[in-house]
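Model the whole thing, not chain by chain.
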Amino acid sequence: MASFYIGVDVGGMTIKMGIFSDTGELLEKWNIPTRTEEEGKNILPDIVESIEQKRAAYGGNILGIGMGIPGPMTEDGVVLKCANFGWGVFNVKNALADLTGVGNVKVGNDANVAALGEMWKGGGRGYDSIVMVTLGTGCGGGIIYKGKVLTGSKGAGGEIGHIKVERDETETCGCGNKGCLEQYASAVGIVRMAKKSMREDSCLSRMADFTAKDVFDSAKAGDAFCLEIVERFGRYLGTALSDVAHVVDPEAFVIGGGVSAAGQILLDVVQKYFSENAMYALKETKFHLAELGNDAGIYGAVRMVLFK
Amino acid sequence: MASFYIGVDVGGMTIKMGIFSDTGELLEKWNIPTRTEEEGKNILPDIVESIEQKRAAYGGNILGIGMGIPGPMTEDGVVLKCANFGWGVFNVKNALADLTGVGNVKVGNDANVAALGEMWKGGGRGYDSIVMVTLGTGCGGGIIYKGKVLTGSKGAGGEIGHIKVERDETETCGCGNKGCLEQYASAVGIVRMAKKSMREDSCLSRMADFTAKDVFDSAKAGDAFCLEIVERFGRYLGTALSDVAHVVDPEAFVIGGGVSAAGQILLDVVQKYFSENAMYALKETKFHLAELGNDAGIYGAVRMVLFK
């Protein structure tokens, strides 16, 4: 009888799921809604029901379930804080194992799990130590060191979005501090920087509203103001990543998230400031764009349970 | 017949050595000079001869030899750059094993090895993930994550002295960049900061020359200028360590090296700025002073080969 593995990536709105062969091929992916009402009590049962339906359709055994969730957690699978879902502190891994009867269950922080996915099948292929940077609404990080997720002692390993990069900032970051990387190197941060210093000579000044994509697109089209914003973004991110390299010295950085769709212009400006600030031994650290997009989470989730 | 373990800490001037029981007790420690002439070709033979003399005196077997050397190296024991000694690239571990006939040999970067020693028997006792910061002439770092040294992919893991902390610096660091942590958080760096901004109202202005210890001593005695220098030192180091915590999230920082003799005043000012800049999950990270002084290296070296 055929054997399958399930990857689950729990987001605030949608739960992404995938069924994989025992050689790691993605056979099918699908989504179910994240029902956050009543302290999120339906989330795990919904996942279990969806897995069971898919198992029945494929007619085989489920040999492992990997899951990524947004929030810090211990390596034992205890979620520490998952405010989006209203979950308290409990062992998600054991709960999922009990509900499914599958023994081989692993649960990790979503940013770390996505990093594992990119290393397995995406922009980090061929490496075993990478730092994945996710530039979405916020700025997240996931560190894989010698093939394993670096979770840290309190689940805050790879929280690079809250590295202090600007001591003169007056606005407060979501975390309560001021001058965090996320305030500049994220979709929200890029728009914030641009709005704060907007000039009349920029095409953006004539738009009612604009996005980080507009900033990069206008920079590519030669808008001087947007080129300056991209340069500032690159200085903050490239310098912060040089800090990160002086700590964990990865083989490569993999940059993903919606903002990374800007492509080569983004890689170039980040690498420029990285190289300027990194010590000699680190200057040749590689940079790649992520390749799996929204599927990184389900790939990484399965990777946790597929090969030991 | 009794069994012993040897710890070796190779410095630029002196090689520190220790013989340990198989339960990890330091039985005796001694030094031999580091003969750097002729591309350092005598260094390993001198160490081997000294080990053999001690083994003969104790009348037993040597079951393991651990060694720390100043420079980046791979986990396989290949030294990549050890300019002080004139050594080229070669496998020190294999060379030492061949010369002694001892199979259980490990070699590591000295800062990482000292960190392991402090975690085993010093200021980091009871933890399994620490960052050790050595504030000597320079500023070094060693990271132990879940009991193992984090060397990084190019041997530059824990090189925290070269994290960029000041974008307005005009003087160049030893590494070639500008604004590295080491330019402020080291014995040399503290004196440099004080000399650069010296004021007539400070007692230091009447000294022909002074040291980092003088700066801390005068601060403790209430000298306003020295208190400002200590504050700047603490801001640079505390903020940089918050960067480090956002990457590897250690249980504790252990601060050693000559400058750390300043004691509580140093811990207090570093913790103040750490806590101000670290995200909520990290604010309670512990800080301790190192306890083993110059013996941290031989303890850590033996720790590498004593327990697997």
